[in-house]
């Protein structure tokens, strides 16, 4: 049993000019009686505000009780080198990769700690300790990618606290920032900064394991996508220079995941996803992703390679950032099914650092994996480039196959020609892999859907299925190709090429099943 209990709260900040709000957490030690009230904030001059908080126990049918808080500590994140690299990672994204940090930048990002002052005893008489939740804080070392989590928070706290207090938002970790934090594609909501993040697990002892607190979100200025940022307990405890919980748990346990097998194989998958950086003749730089499908072949999208204007390119393998593969060592083959956005890169020397994926090629595996609702993971170098960094790693997302679209692509029969998946895909993810629950390659990411206003939908991912990829490999090996440009172009632009007709009552009477 854990000595620590937590209670989600919302905190309101008021000064002569502004009213602000964040989520927060009341943390209580049943053994020592010690408590902490903690949140993350981006306000300037916190000492100029007065603070109050409430929790679900204080929300009645027609009233809400608020208690004053005393600001006891402020630890600016952006001004400390001992946050284990959290702020430097965020700032690199702001200055190198075209992001904005919401809600108010990183300059004033801070951990705030509060006390109850003279209201301490009164507060304990108002809350139901039976509702407080046992938890253990864990180190980032114990967290796998991907892992599902729950945020206990109070979004839209300045509108209606009674409705949103102790709101549960859910998401999945897509990227780990060393030991300092995490990035997730879960949607950021107003006032969830400071929200308490726990792993979503199958509990046998009712003890939840906490990752850290919501710190804000990174928003790509060109509209490509957003990533919610979570600061780890490792970084928070380093910042406050206080053994808040003693030792953090570092043992990894399996969080809820549709496939334990996929989670265990994730490290092997990372090693098979490469980053492709392209320089063009007009001095522009682009990047995308690729998947190692054999010891001498990498598959990607043709649009990643910019073949019509490419001057040079380099391929970077995770864990081997200094050992780059260049165009001098690669032979490029276009897709033998003309119209598909595929490209094959053949490495013309023995390259031991390339780790091929396992491809989903058996009938039984394809029958299980290529169906609506099947669990999948996406891996690709979406959204940020990590220029000059050694920790090049792909962003990982979870989702499902939403739709498998059949078409005759030139072989005289209907077959799966396009898949739509909910696993995340962003600018830079193109050419990355889609994997099934067993860690097998089931498709290649190519593009996203867009709303009518131009907004990119990151979880509407268009995928070239493994069945098409295997056909292409066979055709390349046998010097055979077909031109399906018109059919594929219409399909991938989601263009309607079916002829509508009306079925009349007479037609129904004369029809035969």
Gist?
With 513 residues, the protein is α+β, with helices and mostly antiparallel strands. Helices cover 15% and strands 41% of the residues.
* Low confidence ranges: 255-264
| Class from secondary-structure proportions | alpha+beta
What does the main sheet amount to? 14 strands, mixed
Mean pLDDT: 87
Number of helices: 11
Overall CATH architecture of the largest domain? Beta Barrel
**How much of the residues is beta strand, in percent?**
35-45%
Overall structural domain count: 3
Spatial gap, N to C terminus: 64 Å
The coarse overall form would be elongated
Assembly state of the chains shown: single chain
Q: Helix fraction?
A: 10-25%
Classify the fold: give the CATH topology of the largest domain.
Thrombin, subunit H
How many distinct beta strands? 30
CATH structural class of the largest domain: Mainly Beta
What keyword list fits this structure?
513 residues; alpha+beta; Thrombin, subunit H; 15% helix; TYSND1/DEG15; Plasminogen; hydrolase
Describe this structure in words.
The chain is of the alpha+beta class. It has eleven helices and 30 strands. The protein is elongated. It starts with a strand and ends with a helix. The model is unreliable at 255-264 (pLDDT under 50).
Write the SSE topology:
Blueprint (H helix, E strand, L loop, with lengths): L3 E11 L4 E11 L5 E7 L8 E6 L11 E10 L9 H11 L2 E4 L7 E6 L4 H7 L6 E5 L10 E6 L7 H4 L2 E11 L3 E4 L11 E4 L8 E13 L5 E7 H8 L19 H5 L1 H6 L1 E8 L4 E10 L2 E4 L1 H4 L4 E8 L2 E7 L3 E5 L2 E2 L4 E5 L10 E2 L3 H7 L5 E6 L14 E13 L7 E7 L11 E3 L4 E11 L5 E10 H12 L4 E2 L1 H8 L12 H6 L3
Parallel strand pairs: 8-13, 21-30, 23-28
Antiparallel strand pairs: 1-2, 1-4, 1-8, 2-3, 3-7, 4-5, 5-7, 6-13, 9-10, 9-12, 10-11, 11-14, 12-13, 13-14, 15-16, 15-18, 16-17, 17-22, 18-19, 20-22, 24-25, 24-27, 25-26, 26-29, 27-28, 28-29
């Amino acid at each position: 049993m854990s000595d620590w209990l937590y209670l989600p709260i919302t905190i309101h900040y008021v000064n002569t000019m502004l009213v602000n709000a964040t989520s927060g957490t009341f943390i209580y030690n049943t053994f020592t009686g010690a408590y902490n009230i903690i949140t993350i904030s981006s306000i300037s001059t916190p000492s100029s505000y007065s603070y109050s908080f409430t929790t679900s126990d204080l929300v009645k049918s027609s009233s809400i009780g608020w208690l004053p808080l005393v600001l006891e500590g402020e630890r600016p994140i952006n001004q400390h080198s001992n946050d284990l690299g959290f702020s430097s990672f965020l700032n690199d994204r702001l200055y190198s990769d075209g992001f904005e940090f919401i809600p108010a930048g990183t300059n004033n990002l801070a951990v705030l700690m509060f006390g109850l002052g003279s209201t301490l005893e009164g507060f304990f008489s108002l809350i139901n300790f039976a509702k407080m939740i046992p938890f253990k804080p864990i180190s980032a070392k114990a967290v796998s990618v991907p892992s599902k989590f729950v945020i206990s928070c109070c979004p839209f706290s300045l509108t209606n606290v009674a409705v949103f207090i102790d709101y549960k938002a859910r998401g999945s970790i897509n990227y780990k920032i060393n030991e300092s934090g995490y990035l997730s594609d879960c949607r950021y909501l107003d006032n969830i900064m400071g929200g308490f993040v726990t792993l979503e697990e199958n509990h046998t002892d009712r003890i939840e394991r906490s990752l850290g607190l919501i710190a804000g979100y990174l928003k790509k200025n060109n509209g490509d996508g957003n990533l919610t940022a979570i600061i780890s307990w490792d970084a928070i405890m380093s910042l406050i220079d206080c053994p808040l919980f003693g030792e953090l748990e570092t043992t990894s346990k399996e969080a809820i995941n549709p496939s334990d097998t996929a989670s265990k194989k994730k490290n092997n998958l990372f090693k098979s996803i490469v980053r492709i950086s392209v320089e063009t003749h007009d001095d522009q730089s682009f990047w995308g992703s690729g998947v190692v499908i054999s010891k001498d072949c990498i598959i990607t999208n043709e649009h990643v390679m910019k073949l019509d204007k490419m001057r040079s390119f380099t391929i970077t393998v995770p864990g081997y950032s200094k050992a780059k593969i260049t165009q001098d060592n690669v032979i490029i083959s276009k897709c033998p099914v003309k119209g598909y956005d595929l490209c094959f890169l053949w490495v013309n020397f023995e390259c031991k650092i390339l780790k091929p994926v396992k491809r989903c090629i058996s009938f039984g595996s394809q029958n299980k994996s290529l169906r609506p609702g099947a669990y999948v993971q996406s891996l690709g170098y979406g959204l940020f480039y990590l220029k000059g960094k050694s920790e090049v790693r792909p962003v990982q997302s979870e989702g499902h196959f939403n739709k498998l679209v059949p078409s005759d692509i030139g072989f005289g029969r209907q077959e799966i020609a396009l898949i739509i998946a909910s696993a995340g895909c962003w600018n830079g993810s193109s050419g990355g892999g889609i994997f099934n629950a067993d860690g097998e390659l089931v498709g290649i990411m190519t593009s996203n859907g867009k709303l009518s206003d131009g907004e990119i939908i990151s979880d509407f991912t268009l995928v070239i299925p493994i069945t098409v990829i295997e056909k292409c490999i066979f055709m390349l090996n046998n010097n055979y190709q077909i031109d399906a440009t018109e059919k594929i172009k219409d399909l991938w632009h989601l263009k309607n090429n079916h002829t509508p007709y009306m079925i009349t009552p007479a037609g129904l009477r004369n029809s035969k099943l």
